[in-house]
Amino acid sequence: MSIFRLSPVTTDRDYQACFNIMRELRPHLTDASVFASQVRRQAAQGYSLLAGWQEEQVKGLAGYRIQENLLYGRFLYVDDLITTSDARCHGIGGKLIDALREEARQQNCAHFVLDTALGNALGQRFYFRQGLLAKGMHFSQPL
After folding, report:
1. If both were cysteines, with which of 25, 28, 52, 118 could 82 make a disulfide (CB 3.0 to 4.6 Å apart)?
2. Of 133, 134, 72, 131, which Cα lies nearest the Cα of 107?
């Protein structure tokens, strides 16, 4: 079984190590330095990035933030969740979800929330196995 360690991403070196994996989830990202700058801007707004490492390679990422609204009260929202294909059957996604749930509890959150694409059937199966339930549909419009 593979050993993974989880740690927050805060350094330029770590951002560089995360870029290609995040790009699998967000293919519109084309430049590692632009990615790092955006993550830093988002961090100023409460965004955090957690990496799952296997030795010196990032095998999974979870980007999240603590929010509050009238629907959920205080909640942890997962912006980004991705694992490399070779790590998916080794539990890294579950470890990231567990770590985020624990963070939500420590931050006195009432809910744990994420969105996924309608066509992401494999992701949806994974989320159901993790105990997450579909509660609605997410709508958006480019401006």
Report:
1. 25
2. 72
Across 1-143, the runs of DSSP E, i.e. the strands, are 5-8, 48-54, 57-69, 73-83, 111-114
How far is it, in rounded angstroms, from Cα 35 to Cα 70?
31
Question: Which tokens is 17 given?
Answer: 């190590």
Provide the CA 3 distance to its chain's centre, in angstroms.
19
| Maximal C-alpha separation, the chain | 46
Tens digit of each residue's pLDDT (9 = 90 or more) over 42-55:
999 999 999 999 98
Would the CA dihedral through 21, 25, 29, 30 be positive or negative? positive
Phi/psi of residue 129, nearest 5 degrees: -60, -30
Class at the top of the CATH hierarchy for domain 5-129: alpha beta
Name residues whose C-beta falls within 8 Å of residue 69's C-beta, 6 or more positions apart in sequence: 75
> For the chain, which residues make up each domain, given as ranges?
5-129
Q: Quick: pLDDT tens for 76-121.
A: 999 999 999 888 888 899 999 999 999 999 999 999 999 888 888 8
The whole-model pTM stands at 0.89
CB atoms within 10 A of CB 2: 13
